[in-house]
Amino acid sequence: MGDVIYLDNASTALVDCVELGSQFNTSSPHRLGLMASRELEDSRKLLADILGVSEIYFTSGGTESNNLGIIGFASANKREDLKIFCEPYLHPSAVSAVKHTANCEISATALENAKHHKGKQLVILSQVCHETGSITNIEDLARSLKSANPSCYIFVDGVQGFCKEPINLSYVDVYTCSSHKIGALSGAGLLYIRKGLRISPLFYGGGQENDLRPGTHNLRAISSFASTAERLRKNDWKDYVSALKDRFITYITTLPDVFINTRADNVSPYILNVSFMGVRGEILVNALSEKGVYASMGAACRTRKNDKSPLELMDFDRERAEAAVRFSFSHKNTLPEIEKAGGLIIDLVHSLRRVLGRKK
Question: Which of 126, 159, 304, 360 is most buried, by the most CB atoms less than 10 A from its CB?
Fold first, then answer.
Protein backbone atom coordinates (compact mmCIF):
# COMPACT_ATOMS: atom_id res chain seq x y z
CA MET A 1 0.00 0.00 0.00
CA GLY A 2 2.99 2.28 -0.37
CA ASP A 3 3.02 5.20 2.04
CA VAL A 4 -0.52 4.51 3.26
CA ILE A 5 -0.90 3.85 7.00
CA TYR A 6 -4.17 2.03 7.44
CA LEU A 7 -5.62 2.21 10.96
CA ASP A 8 -9.26 1.46 10.18
CA ASN A 9 -9.17 -2.31 10.52
CA ALA A 10 -12.38 -2.45 12.58
CA SER A 11 -14.22 -1.30 9.46
CA THR A 12 -12.46 -3.69 7.08
CA ALA A 13 -9.26 -5.42 8.11
CA LEU A 14 -6.18 -5.43 5.91
CA VAL A 15 -6.32 -8.59 3.80
CA ASP A 16 -4.21 -11.25 5.47
CA CYS A 17 -3.54 -13.33 2.37
CA VAL A 18 -5.42 -13.55 -0.92
CA GLU A 19 -6.28 -17.16 -1.67
CA LEU A 20 -8.82 -17.55 -4.43
CA GLY A 21 -10.78 -20.72 -4.00
CA SER A 22 -13.03 -22.11 -6.71
CA GLN A 23 -16.13 -20.17 -7.64
CA PHE A 24 -18.31 -22.89 -9.09
CA ASN A 25 -21.88 -23.29 -7.94
CA THR A 26 -22.02 -25.60 -4.95
CA SER A 27 -25.53 -26.71 -5.97
CA SER A 28 -24.52 -27.88 -9.47
CA PRO A 29 -24.72 -31.68 -9.93
CA HIS A 30 -21.62 -32.03 -12.13
CA ARG A 31 -18.05 -32.78 -11.02
CA LEU A 32 -17.03 -29.12 -10.61
CA GLY A 33 -20.12 -28.47 -8.51
CA LEU A 34 -19.33 -31.47 -6.32
CA MET A 35 -15.77 -30.23 -5.85
CA ALA A 36 -17.13 -26.82 -4.86
CA SER A 37 -19.57 -28.44 -2.45
CA ARG A 38 -16.73 -30.33 -0.75
CA GLU A 39 -14.73 -27.09 -0.46
CA LEU A 40 -17.77 -25.41 1.11
CA GLU A 41 -18.27 -28.18 3.65
CA ASP A 42 -14.56 -28.29 4.50
CA SER A 43 -14.73 -24.54 5.23
CA ARG A 44 -17.86 -25.03 7.31
CA LYS A 45 -16.27 -27.79 9.37
CA LEU A 46 -13.11 -25.77 9.98
CA LEU A 47 -14.97 -22.63 11.15
CA ALA A 48 -17.34 -24.67 13.32
CA ASP A 49 -14.34 -26.39 14.89
CA ILE A 50 -12.71 -23.03 15.67
CA LEU A 51 -15.90 -22.02 17.49
CA GLY A 52 -16.23 -25.40 19.18
CA VAL A 53 -19.67 -26.11 17.72
CA SER A 54 -21.09 -28.77 15.42
CA GLU A 55 -22.98 -26.64 12.88
CA ILE A 56 -22.88 -23.15 11.36
CA TYR A 57 -24.66 -21.35 8.54
CA PHE A 58 -23.13 -19.06 5.93
CA THR A 59 -24.51 -15.63 4.99
CA SER A 60 -23.21 -12.63 3.03
CA GLY A 61 -21.72 -10.91 6.09
CA GLY A 62 -22.24 -9.64 9.63
CA THR A 63 -25.20 -7.42 8.78
CA GLU A 64 -27.17 -10.26 7.25
CA SER A 65 -26.21 -12.62 10.06
CA ASN A 66 -27.41 -10.13 12.68
CA ASN A 67 -30.67 -9.49 10.84
CA LEU A 68 -31.35 -13.15 10.25
CA GLY A 69 -30.47 -14.11 13.81
CA ILE A 70 -32.57 -11.38 15.45
CA ILE A 71 -35.54 -10.91 13.13
CA GLY A 72 -35.61 -14.62 12.29
CA PHE A 73 -35.73 -15.52 15.98
CA ALA A 74 -38.47 -12.94 16.64
CA SER A 75 -40.53 -14.20 13.71
CA ALA A 76 -40.25 -17.85 14.74
CA ASN A 77 -41.24 -17.05 18.35
CA LYS A 78 -43.78 -14.26 17.83
CA ARG A 79 -46.64 -16.21 19.41
CA GLU A 80 -44.77 -16.72 22.68
CA ASP A 81 -44.83 -13.16 24.04
CA LEU A 82 -41.15 -12.70 23.24
CA LYS A 83 -39.36 -9.53 24.34
CA ILE A 84 -35.97 -8.45 22.99
CA PHE A 85 -33.49 -6.43 25.05
CA CYS A 86 -30.68 -4.42 23.46
CA GLU A 87 -28.36 -1.58 24.46
CA PRO A 88 -28.55 1.41 22.08
CA TYR A 89 -24.81 1.64 21.37
CA LEU A 90 -24.43 -1.81 19.85
CA HIS A 91 -23.68 -2.07 16.13
CA PRO A 92 -26.32 -0.45 13.88
CA SER A 93 -27.02 -3.76 12.13
CA ALA A 94 -28.09 -5.25 15.47
CA VAL A 95 -29.95 -2.22 16.85
CA SER A 96 -31.81 -1.63 13.57
CA ALA A 97 -32.81 -5.29 13.38
CA VAL A 98 -34.17 -5.11 16.95
CA LYS A 99 -36.23 -2.03 15.99
CA HIS A 100 -37.98 -4.16 13.37
CA THR A 101 -39.29 -6.61 15.96
CA ALA A 102 -42.68 -6.31 17.65
CA ASN A 103 -41.72 -6.10 21.33
CA CYS A 104 -38.33 -4.70 22.29
CA GLU A 105 -36.48 -2.48 24.73
CA ILE A 106 -33.48 -0.53 23.46
CA SER A 107 -31.97 1.33 26.40
CA ALA A 108 -28.81 1.78 28.44
CA THR A 109 -30.46 -0.22 31.24
CA ALA A 110 -31.66 -3.04 28.97
CA LEU A 111 -29.40 -5.72 30.48
CA GLU A 112 -30.39 -4.87 34.04
CA ASN A 113 -34.08 -4.81 33.09
CA ALA A 114 -33.72 -8.15 31.33
CA LYS A 115 -32.71 -9.75 34.63
CA HIS A 116 -36.12 -8.86 36.06
CA HIS A 117 -38.18 -9.92 33.05
CA LYS A 118 -39.90 -13.24 33.60
CA GLY A 119 -41.18 -14.09 30.11
CA LYS A 120 -39.38 -15.44 27.09
CA GLN A 121 -36.63 -13.07 26.01
CA LEU A 122 -33.73 -12.60 23.62
CA VAL A 123 -30.84 -10.52 24.97
CA ILE A 124 -28.47 -8.96 22.44
CA LEU A 125 -24.81 -8.72 23.48
CA SER A 126 -21.62 -7.61 21.76
CA GLN A 127 -18.45 -9.63 22.31
CA VAL A 128 -16.28 -6.57 21.62
CA CYS A 129 -17.69 -3.05 21.31
CA HIS A 130 -17.10 -1.82 17.77
CA GLU A 131 -16.63 1.76 18.99
CA THR A 132 -14.45 1.53 22.10
CA GLY A 133 -13.09 -2.02 22.05
CA SER A 134 -14.61 -2.82 25.45
CA ILE A 135 -14.77 -6.60 25.94
CA THR A 136 -17.86 -8.24 27.40
CA ASN A 137 -17.39 -11.26 29.64
CA ILE A 138 -19.94 -13.22 27.65
CA GLU A 139 -19.78 -16.41 29.67
CA ASP A 140 -20.38 -14.77 33.06
CA LEU A 141 -23.06 -12.37 31.82
CA ALA A 142 -24.93 -15.02 29.85
CA ARG A 143 -24.81 -17.43 32.80
CA SER A 144 -26.17 -14.71 35.09
CA LEU A 145 -29.01 -13.81 32.72
CA LYS A 146 -30.01 -17.43 32.17
CA SER A 147 -29.87 -18.09 35.92
CA ALA A 148 -32.30 -15.21 36.51
CA ASN A 149 -34.59 -16.41 33.73
CA PRO A 150 -34.47 -19.93 32.20
CA SER A 151 -36.46 -18.56 29.24
CA CYS A 152 -33.63 -16.19 28.36
CA TYR A 153 -31.84 -16.68 25.04
CA ILE A 154 -28.49 -15.04 24.31
CA PHE A 155 -27.52 -13.50 20.98
CA VAL A 156 -23.88 -12.40 20.58
CA ASP A 157 -22.54 -10.13 17.85
CA GLY A 158 -19.00 -11.49 17.58
CA VAL A 159 -17.91 -9.49 14.55
CA GLN A 160 -15.12 -7.59 16.36
CA GLY A 161 -14.19 -10.52 18.59
CA PHE A 162 -13.94 -13.59 16.37
CA CYS A 163 -10.34 -14.84 16.10
CA LYS A 164 -9.22 -12.01 18.40
CA GLU A 165 -10.78 -12.86 21.76
CA PRO A 166 -11.65 -16.30 23.16
CA ILE A 167 -15.33 -17.18 23.24
CA ASN A 168 -17.15 -19.98 25.03
CA LEU A 169 -20.52 -20.61 23.38
CA SER A 170 -21.81 -22.90 26.12
CA TYR A 171 -24.31 -20.24 27.24
CA VAL A 172 -24.78 -18.60 23.81
CA ASP A 173 -27.75 -19.43 21.57
CA VAL A 174 -26.88 -17.36 18.49
CA TYR A 175 -23.47 -16.04 17.41
CA THR A 176 -22.46 -14.01 14.35
CA CYS A 177 -19.22 -12.90 12.69
CA SER A 178 -17.92 -11.68 9.34
CA SER A 179 -15.09 -12.52 6.95
CA HIS A 180 -13.74 -9.06 6.15
CA LYS A 181 -13.26 -8.13 9.82
CA ILE A 182 -10.52 -10.73 10.23
CA GLY A 183 -8.63 -9.97 7.02
CA ALA A 184 -10.41 -12.41 4.70
CA LEU A 185 -12.16 -11.48 1.46
CA SER A 186 -15.43 -9.64 2.04
CA GLY A 187 -18.76 -11.23 1.24
CA ALA A 188 -19.12 -14.03 3.80
CA GLY A 189 -20.74 -14.13 7.20
CA LEU A 190 -21.23 -16.82 9.78
CA LEU A 191 -24.26 -17.64 11.90
CA TYR A 192 -24.23 -20.17 14.72
CA ILE A 193 -27.61 -21.31 16.03
CA ARG A 194 -27.93 -23.64 18.99
CA LYS A 195 -29.45 -26.94 17.92
CA GLY A 196 -33.22 -27.00 18.38
CA LEU A 197 -33.60 -23.21 18.30
CA ARG A 198 -36.26 -21.97 15.89
CA ILE A 199 -35.30 -19.20 13.45
CA SER A 200 -37.35 -18.29 10.40
CA PRO A 201 -35.70 -17.40 7.07
CA LEU A 202 -35.91 -13.81 5.84
CA PHE A 203 -36.20 -14.80 2.19
CA TYR A 204 -36.72 -17.89 0.08
CA GLY A 205 -35.13 -19.60 -2.89
CA GLY A 206 -33.10 -22.66 -3.74
CA GLY A 207 -32.89 -24.31 -0.35
CA GLN A 208 -29.23 -23.68 0.45
CA GLU A 209 -28.13 -23.63 4.11
CA ASN A 210 -30.96 -26.01 5.06
CA ASP A 211 -33.52 -23.52 3.70
CA LEU A 212 -32.46 -20.94 6.28
CA ARG A 213 -30.43 -18.75 3.94
CA PRO A 214 -31.02 -19.60 0.26
CA GLY A 215 -28.88 -18.24 -2.55
CA THR A 216 -25.67 -19.15 -4.36
CA HIS A 217 -22.71 -19.35 -2.01
CA ASN A 218 -19.85 -16.87 -2.32
CA LEU A 219 -17.36 -19.71 -2.19
CA ARG A 220 -14.21 -17.62 -2.64
CA ALA A 221 -15.14 -15.44 0.34
CA ILE A 222 -16.13 -18.48 2.41
CA SER A 223 -12.88 -20.32 1.61
CA SER A 224 -10.88 -17.19 2.40
CA PHE A 225 -12.83 -16.83 5.66
CA ALA A 226 -11.94 -20.35 6.74
CA SER A 227 -8.26 -20.28 5.73
CA THR A 228 -7.69 -16.85 7.33
CA ALA A 229 -9.39 -17.95 10.56
CA GLU A 230 -7.19 -21.05 10.63
CA ARG A 231 -4.03 -18.97 10.25
CA LEU A 232 -5.15 -16.69 13.05
CA ARG A 233 -5.84 -19.68 15.26
CA LYS A 234 -2.30 -20.94 14.71
CA ASN A 235 -0.67 -17.52 15.17
CA ASP A 236 -1.70 -15.49 18.22
CA TRP A 237 -1.06 -11.85 17.32
CA LYS A 238 -2.61 -10.33 20.43
CA ASP A 239 0.65 -9.47 22.22
CA TYR A 240 2.11 -7.97 19.05
CA VAL A 241 -0.95 -5.79 18.43
CA SER A 242 -1.04 -4.81 22.11
CA ALA A 243 2.54 -3.54 21.81
CA LEU A 244 1.59 -1.47 18.75
CA LYS A 245 -1.38 0.04 20.56
CA ASP A 246 0.64 0.82 23.70
CA ARG A 247 3.31 2.56 21.63
CA PHE A 248 0.66 4.56 19.81
CA ILE A 249 -0.92 5.65 23.10
CA THR A 250 2.51 6.70 24.42
CA TYR A 251 2.89 9.00 21.41
CA ILE A 252 -0.52 10.65 21.34
CA THR A 253 -0.84 11.17 25.11
CA THR A 254 2.13 13.53 25.05
CA LEU A 255 -0.52 15.98 23.87
CA PRO A 256 -2.64 17.71 26.53
CA ASP A 257 -6.41 17.21 26.66
CA VAL A 258 -6.37 13.77 25.10
CA PHE A 259 -8.81 11.22 26.51
CA ILE A 260 -9.15 7.50 25.83
CA ASN A 261 -12.82 6.57 25.63
CA THR A 262 -13.86 3.37 27.33
CA ARG A 263 -16.06 2.42 30.27
CA ALA A 264 -14.42 -0.98 30.79
CA ASP A 265 -11.22 -2.30 32.32
CA ASN A 266 -10.93 -5.08 29.76
CA VAL A 267 -10.37 -3.60 26.29
CA SER A 268 -9.38 -5.13 22.97
CA PRO A 269 -5.87 -4.25 21.74
CA TYR A 270 -7.31 -3.97 18.25
CA ILE A 271 -9.45 -0.87 18.89
CA LEU A 272 -8.63 2.53 20.40
CA ASN A 273 -11.18 5.31 20.68
CA VAL A 274 -9.61 8.63 21.65
CA SER A 275 -10.75 12.26 21.85
CA PHE A 276 -8.43 15.15 20.97
CA MET A 277 -10.32 17.96 22.66
CA GLY A 278 -10.80 21.10 20.62
CA VAL A 279 -10.67 19.27 17.28
CA ARG A 280 -13.76 17.61 15.84
CA GLY A 281 -13.15 14.00 14.92
CA GLU A 282 -14.37 14.55 11.38
CA ILE A 283 -11.82 17.32 10.82
CA LEU A 284 -8.93 15.27 12.18
CA VAL A 285 -9.89 12.14 10.21
CA ASN A 286 -9.99 14.17 6.98
CA ALA A 287 -6.69 15.90 7.77
CA LEU A 288 -5.05 12.55 8.51
CA SER A 289 -6.29 11.05 5.25
CA GLU A 290 -4.57 13.90 3.38
CA LYS A 291 -1.34 12.69 5.00
CA GLY A 292 -1.98 9.04 4.14
CA VAL A 293 -3.18 7.93 7.58
CA TYR A 294 -6.62 6.34 7.57
CA ALA A 295 -8.79 6.13 10.68
CA SER A 296 -12.52 6.61 11.30
CA MET A 297 -15.12 8.05 13.63
CA GLY A 298 -16.67 4.68 14.38
CA ALA A 299 -18.93 2.26 12.54
CA ALA A 300 -18.99 2.83 8.80
CA CYS A 301 -22.64 1.73 8.85
CA ARG A 302 -23.75 4.76 10.91
CA THR A 303 -24.87 7.17 8.20
CA ARG A 304 -27.58 9.23 9.93
CA LYS A 305 -25.54 12.12 11.25
CA ASN A 306 -28.41 13.53 13.33
CA ASP A 307 -28.48 10.45 15.53
CA LYS A 308 -26.66 10.52 18.84
CA SER A 309 -23.26 8.89 18.54
CA PRO A 310 -22.58 5.66 20.48
CA LEU A 311 -20.29 7.62 22.82
CA GLU A 312 -23.11 10.03 23.68
CA LEU A 313 -25.37 7.04 24.30
CA MET A 314 -22.68 5.77 26.68
CA ASP A 315 -22.99 9.09 28.56
CA PHE A 316 -19.78 10.72 27.32
CA ASP A 317 -20.39 14.45 26.99
CA ARG A 318 -21.08 15.84 23.54
CA GLU A 319 -17.80 17.76 23.12
CA ARG A 320 -15.79 14.66 23.92
CA ALA A 321 -17.92 12.51 21.64
CA GLU A 322 -17.56 14.95 18.74
CA ALA A 323 -13.78 15.00 19.19
CA ALA A 324 -13.50 11.20 19.06
CA VAL A 325 -11.52 9.23 16.51
CA ARG A 326 -11.35 5.45 16.32
CA PHE A 327 -8.03 3.87 15.44
CA SER A 328 -8.07 0.12 14.86
CA PHE A 329 -5.05 -2.08 14.43
CA SER A 330 -4.00 -5.26 12.67
CA HIS A 331 -1.06 -7.64 12.86
CA LYS A 332 -0.29 -6.33 9.37
CA ASN A 333 0.59 -2.93 10.85
CA THR A 334 4.21 -2.23 11.82
CA LEU A 335 5.93 -0.29 14.58
CA PRO A 336 7.42 2.28 12.13
CA GLU A 337 3.91 2.93 10.81
CA ILE A 338 2.60 3.46 14.32
CA GLU A 339 5.41 5.86 15.21
CA LYS A 340 5.00 7.82 11.98
CA ALA A 341 1.23 8.06 12.49
CA GLY A 342 1.74 9.21 16.09
CA GLY A 343 4.09 11.98 14.99
CA LEU A 344 1.70 13.15 12.27
CA ILE A 345 -1.19 13.23 14.72
CA ILE A 346 0.78 15.36 17.18
CA ASP A 347 1.68 17.87 14.46
CA LEU A 348 -1.85 18.00 13.05
CA VAL A 349 -3.55 18.41 16.43
CA HIS A 350 -1.18 21.24 17.35
CA SER A 351 -1.89 22.97 14.02
CA LEU A 352 -5.65 22.44 14.12
CA ARG A 353 -5.93 23.66 17.70
CA ARG A 354 -4.10 26.86 16.73
CA VAL A 355 -6.41 27.39 13.76
CA LEU A 356 -9.53 26.55 15.76
CA GLY A 357 -8.49 28.77 18.67
CA ARG A 358 -7.77 26.19 21.34
CA LYS A 359 -4.58 26.12 23.38
CA LYS A 360 -2.05 23.42 22.51
Answer: 159
